[in-house]
Design a protein that fits this description.
Rossmann fold, BirA Bifunctional Protein, domain 2, 18 helices, alpha+beta, protein biosynthesis, 490 residues, 40% helix
Length: 490
Amino acid sequence: MTDEASNRPEARAPRGFADRRGRDLTAERRIVARVSEVYERWGFEALETPAFEYADALGKFLPDADRPNEGVFALQDDDDQWVALRYDHTAPLARFAAQTWETLPKPFRRYAYGPVWRNEKPGPGRFREFWQCDADTVGSDRPEADAEIIAMGCEGLRAAGLAAGQAVIRVSNRKLFDGLFDAGGIADPVQRLTALRAVDKYDRLGVEGVRLLLGEGRLDESGDYTKGANLPASVIGAIEAFLASAETPGLSRAGVLDAVSGAALGAAGEEALKELAAVDRALTAMGVAQDDVRFDPTIVRGLEYYTGAVFEAELLLDTKDEKGRAVRFGSIGGGGRYDDLVSRFTGQSTPATGFSFGVSRLASALRAAGRGAEDATRGPVVAIVFSEDDMQHYLDAVSELRAAGIAAELYLGRAGMKAQMKYADRRGAPAAVILGGDEIAAGQVTIKDLDAGRARAAAIADNDAWKAERPGQQTVARDQLVAVVRSIIE
């Protein structure tokens, strides 16, 4: 190997970052456009915040260390201050609300979409850069504000392409566990957080796995041991009652509240029941079906800034990977009430609630469910080049198509006709425009309908028959170019 070759950089994308082509981008843009229309119809204003924030504004996600680069991508600015790529859209909203609160209409209702970055270990379906779409209300402590966000989330998921029964939003309230811990004498915040993390694994580990993590700990199949929360048996029993209510089939939202109301919940837990009952009344008034939104006390959400209602959107579609094997996507979004986030900046309690879903994740899930056909990118009409002498005719043709609003391109490589047709096929072109010497002399143009050609050619087994029929190809007067191409596209 020469020194020059050995010094060449390897062409590779960083781990956890992905290149995305037309199909993926088309799917995500379609989702964002449709969901944005829903949010605006519900009275939410678009807001775009910078990709970078000062690192202390994202404090929840930063460790207590000199270099704040765990969990986020951070760098030191020329004024020695740390800035970091946003981890989500909620922390930037809290900073914006605190910074501009005096000028904002209150409550402030905004939606946002765009990429977020997380400095975490990448894995299958887990990226360090991905798109999210959020909607939040800042400045309202009413349970109806939570209900509205939840109901709008349901409509947004429908607009994104999920029909009834293909997703469910599960709702709970963080105060249920706060009250349960208070009543059980659990004051240690680390012990509480360990217990909440155990409950958060219920869908993966089941009742027995969670019970072990609530107690002394759990040894998994690989031999790794996870230390438990060491809760008293009485508190573990109350949590297991929560789990049982989540498993009861056909239980209404009000029925779930009745099922958990018998536990020793303390003042905070009783407050949570009242708030959830108000959410249920508002959801029912807005016509939100019981199957679309369910109460589930096992929903705790992973972010520590939630203070009240929490919700998680779960995909119910059957999905498969590239090899046809069943795969479970699970959560595709979530949110909740975070009444203390803005006060980090102002010192004054400012209620807020919001919902976020992963645009990239939802697009992948729809594709895994066989719903990606509409996302296939439609390439431009391709004009075939035969001779340098006739370049003006080719340029006229593509210019005429573009002026009529039809995407068109002139082949600018140096290959022959067969390779050019293959190029048009790979581009997903609906048609190829052929202006050979005979067509030009006769004032005509040959148009090959590539979609029709592909479909009909698949049904013709004999090569001679295919050549004789020339499926999808027609020769028309030159002034009919736009009309014929438009008929093919439409």
